[in-house]
Design a protein that fits this description.
heterodimer; A: 424 residues; 17 helices; B: 480 residues; mainly alpha; 22 helices
Amino acid sequence: MAVQARTVSVSEAPGLSRRDIFVTILMLLVGGGILILGAFGTQAGDQATFTDQKLGTLFSLSSQPTLYLMGMACLFMAGMRLYRGFAALRAWFGLALAVLAAFAFLVWMSSGTTLNVPGMIQATLTAATPLTLGAMCGLLCERSGIINIAIEGMMLFGAFAGVAFAAIFDNLWMGLIAASLLGGAMAGVHAVLSIKYKVDQIISGTVINILAVGATRFLNLRVLEPAGLSTPGTFDAIRIPVLADIPIVGPILFENQPTTYIMLILLVVVNYVVFFTPWGLRMRACGEHPRAADTVGVAVNRMRYISVVIGGLIAGVGGAYFSLGQVGTFEDGMTRGQGFVALAAMIFGNWNPFGAFAAALLFGFANALQVKMQILQPVLPIINVPIPPEFLQMAPYILTIIVVAGVVGRVRPPAQEGKPYEKQ
Amino acid sequence: MTEERSAGLAARIAALPLWVRLVALAVLVGVPVLLSKWLVLILLIALGLWPITVLVGLVGLALFSIPRGGWPWMRSWLGARLRDLAIPLLSIFTALVIGALVIMFTDAEVYAALSSGQIVYALRVGIQNVAVAYGALYEGAFGNPSDILEAIGRALGGEGLDPILRAVRGPSDSMVQSVPYIFAGLAVALGFRAGLFNIGAEGQIGIGWIAAVIVGFSFRGLPMIIHLPLAIVVGAIAGGLWAAIAGFLRARTGAHEVITTIMLNYISFRLSEWLLCGPLEFTRGTCRTQEIAESAYLPRFLSHPVTLHWGFVLALAAAVAVGWFLFKTTWGYELRTVGANPNAARYGGMSVTRTWVLAMFLSGCLAGLAGVSQGLGISHNAALGFQAGYGFDAIALALLGKSHPAGVVAAAFIFGVLRAGAARMQSVAGVPTEIVQIIQALVIVFIAAPAIIRAIYRFRERRREDIEAEMAVFSRGWGA
């Protein structure tokens, strides 16, 4: 109660916005939550042990003191926020809070047991793969001025084409290529509808999403399953020799599925092309100020067509991850909204490939954590029930809403996105 | 002219004594309610025998036109209707044709014939398949006309109503399917009018459905007159509050409702999974709630297999209410203004943010009612995977109906027909029901890009202002 009174009285001071108060309360809640986890969720002598498959135990912490310490750190940051100490560091408090919360969660979860750290990081990277690919698709489209909410649909088509063509050619790589091409084709449809026919881009994207759900299900039931073409299998992880033997980093970075390597390569390539080449500059101009771009001789709509289709090709690869990378068969709606999460990652990353990648890692971590928790089934303190898996599965979606709600207004989308361009 | 006449009529009604007006109202409402069974039966037969109904309608129109100048008047009246309907009807027709092609070329036999070079044979098999599939679609949606006529003959011969009930099952199924479509379509349309794209109807339907069912089975022994309205209202409000989250986030933080409603969809799916397979599960392993009390049933008009229920009347009433709200009230005016131009609305002194929250809440209420009507009218419980895509179809539907309540009702009926027919098509012809989703997506494409339809059928371009008159704009970026 005392805390409440303080925030209210401080709110009258100039310069402390509603957002500040919100963040402060959030910090207090997180700090309190961590303390409760420490006090009731762990036993006094418990150790949280972090291991590696090869090196054995990396380090182990006494979970209760660690949690107390981290909880206090959160409360301390909240206090600093109110009294405006550490002005230079305050910008990082949000990030620090997220890291603390995540780490505290890990400590609590693995208290009394062990946690495979590189495995966790690799699961994060794997889960971030389709998100990053989707986010790059969105980024290419939106930087050139076309809103793309059809990433989900393009990925679903990609997932389907991956299975179908991998089975037809009996070659997973053909499936990957086909996935990419079908994603690109769907992006072409989106581009034609929104550029040539000037259909509202949100509606055009929704069409592709609906079509993806219906068409993939239809074709799966009517063509793939009767023809026995629905189980091409999955990609094996490719182990890069020598590099993969580096302890810890090796298995994380150099023993992955091809889609993950493609993602990492594309990340660098897209970043370079969009921000460090003349073509990228022209493309971005089409999204920021198409009239100006047109005046200096850039063919705005052609530029948009190209960007959107390239985006679709990338999203198709992201789709192949779900079918050829994970389960080796096609399931209805198997992208499970990850295309929209990718969109949120793009926004969170401020329309920037590496920013989007960082955001995707965050979402990927939420996902990996969720999977891990379903296995460990930690029991909630005080009320003594395990968290139902359905609630854990909600986590990435809730995180997306929080990100979109909390970040929009602080990031800047391309100025002219969503508006068809008409030559005068 | 007509306005003057109706104004005069209203004045004359107002001049009548109160008791006369009350009695008149009671008669106007009471008689149809008492006769509802027969009215519905006639409606279903008229639907099943729609060519005859259309003929009767034309004859009626001709009689009506005689004092107004005969054929020229009738021709201009029909022409005006046809002009409005040309694009939607041609869109549906074209989508059906493309759907037929998809059915044809995804058939194993056709494919085998094609690859061995027997093109004529392939075409014949393909056309046969399509005929069987679309024939089943028609019969599932409208019933078999000769069966209906025969059943009427037998009923007149004194064999009772049962044969008729069996014969009009198709039309009844179409109407039953169109009930949630009307509600969900109105929900999306209301959002469109406020410039909000509510993709979350699917989740809101589920929330409303579960909430209504919980009220339905929690109270035993309540009289129907309290229990039923209570369940309906709770379901609607639950859907509304769920949607209002997205409205609130949009108003407060600017988070685009397309993303938040979709995320809320996924959250609601997980939530209902947990509820239905967890706390609410009645028999272990079924992922299904217990049956609601009979006092919360939306009553049915006729007996099995005609399942049409009073939710149909509720849906039509909701359409009228939404029309009245949008076009006759201050709030509705504000809502439409905000949808047309938020900046202008803000300058005009309207609270844009409040309107967004309100619009989202009302939209969610309507979507919730779609779930309520299914839960209390058809399934009488809630089971896993129950929403079944009404909310997503509703987007296409609202676009097809141009976000106008009357248009939504008409479009909902078309979708209901497609859905009822698709179920039969799957069982008879083995064509997966998802073909309907493909057809719907194509319909949206053609409605949203009429230039394609005009190009195919070589229409002349309409006047520019006609084209630009309607349709809210949604693609304003994520921060706007």
